[in-house]
């Protein structure tokens, strides 16, 4: 190669090393601040470090000297798609593509001067493919969960079953009845049993595309790979649990008055349960905030003070779901109403029909992205 050609190669290597480094840093921020994923953050940092080490083969001053940003015709060429990103996943998709392309350029042009350098970059590129795959799937997973939750109308709370087959059948019948979310709530079983049912249920719920939430136990929810956890007012605070659950899993919080609802809105909770609405057989209460409370929650949704999906809970069934929807709440969480196999589909479908009279205010993707950004 002539001196001029060598200088051009250096110029290309310098530009693409910067591009790949910036892309990796962009992705590292998403693993760290969006997904809260220590392992992925660490992998991306390692790729950035490996790239810097590989680039150490070139003389830094010569690389910088070859740089000619004002004379670079490429800086004038921009496309409309570069100027905006639809959401956080689009930021990540653009950064992965840019990084992969930059690594390929480093490899190809590096081959002209140093095949060993090119081989090192090739190895980094392959490692990046695996990391990027995981990152994009995790992002898709977290978005899917929030989206499913926002579209949810029917949430069923179930107890453990005597064995895996019975649990599978129970989840299947609820999924067939178009139940959107299932919570495993069983204060009567030991930790091992709860974990086993949580784990088996998580796999079945995933297949059936139903959200799978574990009551009270964040540790079991994570260990079992559930979609989330539900906690009450006297349990570990939501923001403290966020560190355990990560950004991608859901956290639900029980609320019993409007002050608790406003407080929940200031946490990283993904949804709230609001009740008890009516007396029921599953759990006894001394006080019933009832439909007056539900109306306050609905008003808070209307004014935009509350942007979290709110599920009315407590003694709700076919006989009174209309009162819930008239209070302006279009989502319910129930145990007793969906406990019986008989007429399950019909009950669920009638309840859904009544709840669907309440339009959602939280379906826009932009709002979902907004809440992720605020965290
Ligand atoms: C959806 C939903 N809402 C409320 C509750 C009640 O949670 P909590 O107050 O923690 O009471 P227990 O369920 O733990 O007895 C819930 N589980 N789910
Ligand atoms: C577990 C629970 N928590 C409630 C609350 O208001 O926080 S009401 C409730 C029981 C829900 O079951 P059912 O639909 O059978 O009444
Ligand atoms: Mg609880």
UniProtKB/TrEMBL annotation:
Q: In which pathway does it act?
A: Cofactor biosynthesis; thiamine diphosphate biosynthesis; thiamine phosphate from 4-amino-2-methyl-5-diphosphomethylpyrimidine and 4-methyl-5-(2-phosphoethyl)-thiazole: step 1/1
Specify which residues bind Mg(2+) according to the UniProt entry for this protein: 216, 235
Cofactor names: Mg(2+)
Q: Which reaction is this enzyme known to catalyze?
A: 2-(2-carboxy-4-methylthiazol-5-yl)ethyl phosphate + 4-amino-2-methyl-5-(diphosphooxymethyl)pyrimidine + 2 H(+) = thiamine phosphate + CO2 + diphosphate; 2-[(2R,5Z)-2-carboxy-4-methylthiazol-5(2H)-ylidene]ethyl phosphate + 4-amino-2-methyl-5-(diphosphooxymethyl)pyrimidine + 2 H(+) = thiamine phosphate + CO2 + diphosphate; 4-methyl-5-(2-phosphooxyethyl)-thiazole + 4-amino-2-methyl-5-(diphosphooxymethyl)pyrimidine + H(+) = thiamine phosphate + diphosphate
Q: Which keywords does this chain's UniProt record carry? A: Magnesium, Metal-binding, Thiamine biosynthesis, Transferase
Residues that hold 4-amino-2-methyl-5-(diphosphooxymethyl)pyrimidine according to the record? 215, 254, 283
Q: What is its EC number?
A: 2.5.1.3
Q: Which GO terms describe its biological process?
A: thiamine biosynthetic process; thiamine diphosphate biosynthetic process
Question: What cellular component terms from Gene Ontology apply here?
Answer: cytoplasm
Q: Does the keyword Plastid apply?
A: no
Q: Which residues bind 2-[(2R,5Z)-2-carboxy-4-methylthiazol-5(2H)-ylidene]ethyl phosphate?
A: 315
Q: Which Pfam families match?
A: ThiD2, TMP-TENI
Q: Sorted alphabetically, which SUPFAM superfamilies does this protein's record hold?
A: Thiamin phosphate synthase
Please name the top-level EC class of this enzyme: transferase
GO molecular function annotations of the record:
magnesium ion binding; thiamine-phosphate diphosphorylase activity
What does the entry comment about cofactor binding? Binds 1 Mg(2+) ion per subunit.
Where the record annotates domain Thiamine phosphate synthase/TenI, the positions are 154-337
Protein family according to the UniProt entry: Belongs to the thiamine-phosphate synthase family.
HAMAP family (UniProt xref)? TMP_synthase (MF_00097)
Its biological purpose: Condenses 4-methyl-5-(beta-hydroxyethyl)thiazole monophosphate (THZ-P) and 2-methyl-4-amino-5-hydroxymethyl pyrimidine pyrophosphate (HMP-PP) to form thiamine monophosphate (TMP).
Record protein name field: Thiamine-phosphate synthase
Q: Which organism is it from?
A: Rhodopirellula islandica
């Amino acid at each position: 190669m002539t001196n001029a050609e060598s200088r051009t190669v250096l110029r290309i290597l310098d530009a693409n090393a910067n591009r790949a480094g910036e892309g990796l840093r962009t992705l590292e921020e998403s693993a760290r601040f969006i997904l809260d994923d220590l392992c992925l953050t660490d992998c991306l940092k390692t790729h950035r470090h490996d790239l810097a080490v590989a680039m150490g083969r070139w003389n830094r001053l010569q690389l910088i000297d070859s740089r000619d940003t004002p004379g670079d015709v490429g800086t004038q060429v921009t496309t409309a798609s570069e100027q905006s990103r639809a959401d956080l996943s689009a930021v990540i998709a653009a950064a992965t593509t840019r990084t992969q392309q930059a690594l390929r350029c480093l490899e190809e042009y590096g081959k002209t001067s140093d095949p060993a350098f090119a081989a090192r970059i090739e190895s980094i590129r392959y490692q990046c493919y695996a990391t990027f795959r995981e990152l994009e799937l995790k992002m898709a997973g977290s978005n899917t969960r929030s989206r499913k939750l926002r579209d949810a109308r029917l949430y069923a709370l179930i107890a453990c079953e005597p064995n895996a087959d019975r649990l599978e059948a129970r989840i299947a019948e609820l999924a067939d009845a178009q139940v959107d979310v299932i919570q495993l709530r069983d204060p009567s079983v030991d930790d091992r049993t709860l974990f086993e049912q949580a784990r088996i249920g998580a796999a079945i719920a995933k297949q059936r595309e139903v959200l799978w939430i574990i009551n009270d136990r964040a540790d079991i929810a994570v260990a079992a790979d559930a979609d989330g956890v539900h906690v009450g007012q006297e349990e570990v605070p939501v923001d403290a649990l966020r560190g355990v659950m990560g950004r991608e899993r859901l956290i639900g919080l029980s609320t019993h008055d409007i002050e608790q609802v406003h407080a929940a809105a200031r946490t990283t909770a993904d949804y709230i349960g609001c009740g008890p609405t009516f007396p029921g057989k599953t759990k006894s209460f001394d006080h019933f905030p009832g439909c007056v409370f539900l109306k306050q929650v609905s008003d808070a949704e209307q004014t935009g003070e509350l942007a979290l999906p709110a599920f009315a809970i407590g003694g709700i069934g076919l006989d009174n779901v209309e009162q819930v929807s008239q209070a302006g709440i279009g989502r319910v969480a129930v145990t007793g109403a969906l406990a019986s196999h008989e007429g399950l589909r019909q009950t669920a479908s009638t309840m859904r029909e009544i709840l669907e009279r309440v339009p959602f205010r939280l379906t826009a993707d932009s709002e979902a992205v907004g809440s992720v950004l605020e965290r």
